[in-house]
Amino acid sequence: MKDECELLKNCGFFQKYQEVKDLACRGFIRMFCRGPRMEECKRKQYREKHGAPPSDDMLPTGQMVAGSQPFEGGLPLKGWEDLCPIESPPL
Ligand code: SF4
Prior knowledge:
Layout: H1 12-17, H2 26-33, H3 42-50, H4 80-83
Iron/sulfur cluster (SF4) binds at residues 5, 7-8, 11, 13-14, 32-33, 38, 41, 43-44, 60.
């Protein structure tokens, strides 16, 4: 298995959130970008389907980071807190 996602360097989510220290959602990076679930990443699937990357605020699970605006065709915001129990990043 690869050590990290091949899209890492071009991924808006990773670029935006990798340095956010107090964001519990960094667990997503461990699980997806550099972990066993990278092939399940919804951002990757979105990019393959649409030929363009989704919003930087879309999580690998397909939901949006709290406080961000959903985008057209995006998945509902509701319930993301259960998946990502950490506070939203500073604005
Ligand atoms: S969020 Fe998805 S597409 Fe982006 S680097 Fe992580 S695994 Fe790859």
